[in-house]
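Still learning. Show one?

>
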Amino acid sequence: MTTTRQPALKTLDFSLPLLNNQHEVYAQGIFQGLSQTDSALEAKYAPTWVRTYAHHLSINVYIKGRIAHLFKAKADGLVDASIMDVKERKQRLSEIGRGRLGDVVDCEGQVLEGSLRSGALQEIRRVSQSLGPGKGVSVSTTVKLRDPMAAISELNKMEQVYSEAPQYNDNRNQTIVVVDKETRDLLEQIGNRTRAELPAAEVKELEDSKSED
């Protein structure tokens, strides 16, 4: 089995992401202001034991080194605050997913004050039309919200929701040595019964494999 080993602390460059992706996600979560438990959940650790995982992660020297570097880089102005971090991206997508028309316009169709700042708002269009000489002007307003399903889909991708679980094939062979005569006779009866239920070709293959052993 091949395992990934972290370099020695003295040679590790903490400006680079950690080799263990879950450790990196946890470190980024702490850096972005999440709690230890929420950071562990972000890193996809099992909810049942998440507090235990969070404790062990919090004392991991490699993770502590990475977190310390991130905060130092921020203090030194090396982290670009104009770039949205993971938490902010999720907040913006959630704002779009929760967007409602009633949050933008009132029951009379008038645009609500402050609604222009809503991340769910995609477009507001006003069209003026003359009603004729001396009759004034008619103004119609069209409001369009961003697609909430697209935002929810992006959130699902970030959270890896509905992703297929990995499939594992167990190819191990197990040999059972039986020394008790009664148990050996019982196993022989089960084997005979199994052969009787198998097609002739499979029985021959089974006998051939036994003779090879």
